[in-house]
Amino acid sequence: MTIQPSDSIRPVRFEDGALRLLDQRRLPSEETEQVFTDAPAVADAIREMVVRGAPAIGITAAFGMVLACRNARGQTDWRARIEADAGHLRDARPTAVNLFWALERMQRVIAGCATPEAAESACQEAAQAMLEADIAGNRQMGALGAELIEPGQGVLTHCNTGSLATGGYGTALGVIRAGWDAGRVRAVYADETRPWLQGSRLTAWELVRDGIPVQLLCEGAAASLMREGRVGWVIVGADRIAANGDTANKIGTYGLALLARAHGVRFMVAAPVATIDFATADGSGIPIEQRPEREVLELAGQMVAAPGARAYNPAFDVTPAELIDAIVTERGVVRTPDRTRLAALVGR
Ligand code: MRU
Q: Which residues of the chain have pLDDT under 70?
């Protein structure tokens, strides 16, 4: 396996008793880490986009629980204190189910421990294992997704689903990396992804570091790109996949899926099994985060909109399952996803 620069990007690290997050708001101009020693500050960092991307948010919250246990040492009400910190983390962002999945796992670990010291070390071990399993799963997903791409195709991606959005390597971007390495992907197009510009700031940064050529486009150019026949697949990640395959992902994904269907372009969602929420029957039950209006009215902190204008700023939208050709997970590929096929993937 070739070691690429992407293998060195680790957005979430736990070292010397502290959580270190690469501050993604500052990329690509600055590579700086922020250091955290308490869970409420970690919750703020998730809300404020220091770290983002569904799997990375989950892993971060898991390490946040390590800090919660540490800060509860020596307290008689240690379980209540840890639970209060879990509540802060749970409230950070509503859409990515990986956050709740990771917290539930850590809470089960803590329930089996008799002291906060024991809970701290068990959580640290579990969070580190979660991070490592995520990277291994992404490699699997990459290989499986790349096999679906006929050699010589162009692909379009949206938002950032790479090393920065996960433990490392990436989901949809992992598929693109694997497809490029296998000589299947010929050209990569990335939406700039307003308003946070995850495409132009983060995806382009990762691909350029890997030596994979990338062309950025304004979201509005996607229809023309497809009509010109430049892409065979749209490949995106997910924040939550409902039991029937409806998929919440970065705002604009639904539009891309409609355009893809209209132009005969195929549509792939790459996500770990942890992103599938079997408790939510369909997309109508997925909570969609509404973010501050200023994110749309401003550009890089500068007001650009006409004074007095308001903004509509949902962070995610839901793509109906019938517009998705394949959901690629670390456990296998589900083509034309529906409730039965998704359940079969996990042996339900
Ligand atoms: O608001 P963000 O940047 O957290 O949104 C991220 C996305 O929508 C990603 O596509 C999704 O989380 C999958 S990341 C592997």
A: 1-4, 6
